[in-house]
Amino acid sequence: MWSNCGQSSSVSRSTSGPGQSTCAATGLEPSWTSSPKSGQATAGLALARRLDVPRQGVFLPGVDKAAAAAAPPEFRAPAPTAVWQLGVDTGRLYAAVSGDFNPIHLSLLSAKALGLPRSIAHGMYLASRALADVGSVKSEAFRWDVNFEAPVFLPARVALEIGTVHSASGSWERSDYVAWNPRSGRRHFSGSVTAL
Predict the structure, then answer these.
(1) Quick one: which of 5, 110, 139, 174 could link to 23 by a disulfide (CB 3.0–4.6 Å)?
(2) What's the fold here for domain 72-195?
């Protein structure tokens, strides 16, 4: 018999029957159950969450912590250049293509099991779709940046605005984009595509 309880500092183990063990870790780690008879381990969605432990992010080396922690400037939604209609199955469709089957993107039930009110669109799907809407990048090499601010709960309507910057000679230099919830005006993400 074996069990894998991850690297959590707060782990509890229990025996749930002959030849079976269960462990649970605090935070957002799943419970694992193993059985020597079947030779299989299954990951459950039973999650323990400690609400009394403050969550904090980690800053990468070289990041200005004060600037990163500062409140972003107030967002005023511009006129959209596109509006996306994202169905409730957007996460499942993206998972089928990408191979990323994270449960927060797949269904209402799996997202709720992980503490979200609904499933959310995958960030790489949103960023890639914005890049596609920017159009053909007129440079062999480019830099692609995206900053996420709020999840896109599915199903959803997402408004997108793309602005393009040209050089004095008229050649493409950069396209900036921003996506938001057209009903609430809350910004979901923003970014840019820049020629190198």
Answers:
(1) 5
(2) Thiol Ester Dehydrase; Chain A (3.10.129)
